[in-house]
């Protein structure tokens, strides 16, 4: 659950108010830490056991973010009634499609599903139905929705902490890490059942089910265009030739990171890339003097980075990247007052209305309706300012029916706003 320890600001529901005794430490799985499944014979037994189990299947995955290239899964954890807990090593068992197929008709319970689904998909595990306990917590109005906090506040147990950011690509995996991983799915189905009841009592269960269905049905995202533009510190780089240096260094770093199976940040930091773009060194001596290209870097490494800088230097002007990335959406809201004061007034009114409704419903504003959706409707509203037309516009932008029901009428009024 490496990337899933996130929080959302919302009003705290009564069920989250601190009361009663301190949480009970959960130090080990009920049946103990299972052995790691790392071969085909063991995987076949897991498939048989979990196919014969009953009820929802708790699923989690551990990655090696910050250590290895990409978002590959290095451990998959499952738990199901009648099957117990399984820990599977995707290095030894890189194809889990048989397991995915055996569980295809069942509900999978994940925490922050969008974090784990890409790496699970890569190894053949794709759910058709799911329950996301993090998203359920957000919709129920919990202020903090990390797994440990949710288990503590909802179920009264304190999970072991401390191994979320370790290098899960290490082999063999230490027993304390495996215990931590097993505990991540130990109470996931229990949490799911408690949250379902909470959502039902708040009248939000159908909303959650719509959200879960949308996540399960969503196709894999397309490759990001110009990923080098996400280099941290890019705002310091202004000139087009400097942008070309960032692009060339980012691309060279990515090739090295992919080849060596290392996190790109371990090959060369974003800060070093930006420093080189700003300084435009003419040789490796000048490059070596920059922060991020210190004395520990060998001459061969310096030469490859300087070669990237030189490629950017030699580019024809018409091949230099543009300062801004082309966008199909509306301009930044800060420019609306100058570009279109009427649209700016619509956006201000819409934001206020959506915020107020989210507070009434006790859920985060972005879960009621994404800020991007609000901006797009306000910048280019439908020709007819009716609930039906606005609802269809929202639907075309990916809004769910419950969101349309809650916000279309508010947006109709906001779209009539004048400066």
Automatic annotation (TrEMBL):
Xref: CDD domains: RNaseD_exo (cd06142)
Gene3D superfamilies listed in its UniProt record: HRDC domain (1.10.150.80), Ribonuclease H-like superfamily/Ribonuclease H (3.30.420.10)
Renumbered residue ranges of the record's region Disordered: 1-35, 316-335
Ranges where the HRDC domain occurs: 239-319
InterPro entries: 3'-5'_exonuclease_dom, Exo_C, HRDC-like_sf, HRDC_dom, HRDC_dom_sf, RNase_D-like, RNaseH-like_sf, RNaseH_sf
Pfam families per UniProt: DNA_pol_A_exo1, DNA_pol_A_exoN, HRDC
Protein name, UniProt field: Ribonuclease D
Source organism per UniProt: Streptomyces sodiiphilus
